[in-house]
Design a protein that fits this description.
Layout (H helix, E strand, L loop, with lengths): L11 H10 L4 H16 L1 H8 L3 H12 L2
Length: 67
């Protein structure tokens, strides 16, 4: 699967291109991406609330941070 032609490491620009191609405004697409970034940044809190073990939560957090 590719996102705007990028298969290995699609980034915000690729996601924005798809959104714009589908009629989503730049402002709305940017707002959604910001919301997702904010939610991902709260991963440790969500992991703790869900009872994800410390080591596994850190492993997942590391993967999320590398995106």
């Amino acid at each position: 699967m590719t996102v705007a032609g990028e298969g290995k490491a699609p980034g915000a620009g690729h996601l924005l291109r798809v959104a714009l191609d589908r009629g989503v405004s730049r402002a709305e697409a940017t707002a959604v991406m910001d919301e997702v970034r904010s939610a991902v940044a709260r991963w440790p809190e969500f992991a703790r609330l869900a009872g994800v073990a410390g080591a596994k939560a850190r492993e997942i957090g590391t993967k999320l941070a590398s995106r």
